[in-house]
# Entry
Amino acid sequence: MPAFPAYTGEHTVGSIDVEIPAADLPSPSFTPEDAPSTIAFRVFYPCQTSLAHPRPVRWIPQPQRQLVAAFAKFLGANHRVAELIA
# Structure
């Protein structure tokens, strides 16, 4: 499986996944009916690590407790188990 070469730069590397509607892009040719409705890609960029003020990456939006409990309930956990998980 192809992979990126080992990274040797001075900065850490950040990435973000982006998905946009294909209809928002100009097309120089006819679009087939079975074409995907969105285009997904990943952008890599250099970033600087701040040791003075480390900031954690928050993947779960705030308020986290209520969101995690809601996902647990969605997956079938009862109210008490969902609150315990959260």
Observations:
- The chain has a mean pLDDT of 79.
- The chain is about 20% helix and 25% strand.
